[in-house]
Amino acid sequence: MNSSPLHGRHIVITRPVGQAEKLGKLIAEAGGVTAPFPLIEIAPLDNYQAFEDHIRHLPEYDWAIFISSNAVQNGMPFVGKLKRPNSLKFAAIGPSTAAELAKFGVQHTLIPEGRFDSESLLALPEMLKVNNQKIMIFRGIGGREVLADTLKSRGANLSFAECYQRINPQEDITQLTSLNDQGRLDAIVVTSSEAMRHLLTMASHQAWLKNVKLCVNHARIAEEPSGLGLDIHIATAPGDDAMLACLIEALS
Question: Which of 125, 192, 205, 224 has its CB surrounded by the most CB atoms within 10 Å?
Fold first, then answer.
């Protein structure tokens, strides 16, 4: 009898290409088999002229907030052309984003502790006292509004610097239905609300999804599928190790 905790289990990872390797390796080490089905693809903007015109005003701002590593990778090459005043402060949604900023010479970045999301960043003392401060949020097109809305309610002057776009590279759900029909689909890992929306839209009215464990990394992502009666499991902490633990518990 094989003692590997995920022996014989088949798990689909919906992260963008290039962001699933570590989790895939952890799952393989635990005996599981993974299949990629990326529901989000990060793409540059078709035209950066408006973005560049907007960030020229960044030296007038108090804070630059980056909501993801993607925002850093797509935004900082343009920011790097500007003369940044020492008074400009940087904040990031978590340590991975801060590490990406460090590659561009940003040494002191405000990040939350524990959970890495907008709510945790908003709870920091520095983000509670932002009345009359100018804040530029670097993100993809159409990101969540909770960060901006909350900072506005605290008196901040907000603007967005949208520097990339997310697209769904999948045309249909056939790959997943085929895996399910073959008995090779035990769990699906979903780590963004947008990816979850794509999955639910593509698999709407398909009963097989109710028999699959959906493992997510934040309660926010679980809200819609929970309302549909799907089998949702939420990792207790951020990071790939916590997601692995979530999978092992869900599939034990």
Answer: 192
**CA triplet 121, 146, 70: central angle to 5 degrees?**
65
Long-range (24+ apart) CB contacts under 8 A made by 120-123 are 121/65, 121/91, 121/93, 121/147, 122/146, 122/147, 122/150, 122/151
CA pair distance 204, 154, nearest whole angstrom: 39
Please spell the DSSP secondary structure of 194-227, one letter per residue. Answer: HHHHHHHHHTTT-GGGGGSEEEESSHHHHHHHHH
Please give the model's pTM, rounded to 2 decimal places: 0.79
So what's the pLDDT on residue 81? 93
Q: How far apart are CA 34 and CA 251, in angstroms?
A: 14
Which residue type is seen at 25?
Answer: K
Over residues 11-39, mean pLDDT = 95
Is residue 1's pLDDT more than 60? no
Alpha helices in 81-145 (DSSP H): 95-102, 118-122, 125-128
List, for residues 139-155, the tens digit of each pLDDT value. Answer: 999 877 889 999 999 99
What does the block give as tokens for 245?
A: 């633990």
- CA 105, 127, 104: angle at the middle one, nearest 5? 10
For residue 214, the cross-strand partners are 188, 232
| 207, 211, 215, 216: CA torsion to nearest 10 | 30
**In this predicted model, what pLDDT tens digit does every residue of 104-137 receive, in sequence order?**
999 999 999 877 888 899 999 999 999 999 999 9
Contact 191, 216 (CB under 8 A): yes
Give me the numbers of helices (H) and strands (E) for the chain, helices first please: 11, 11
pLDDT of 115 reads 79
Determine the residue type at 148. Answer: A
Q: What is the mean pLDDT of the chain?
A: 94
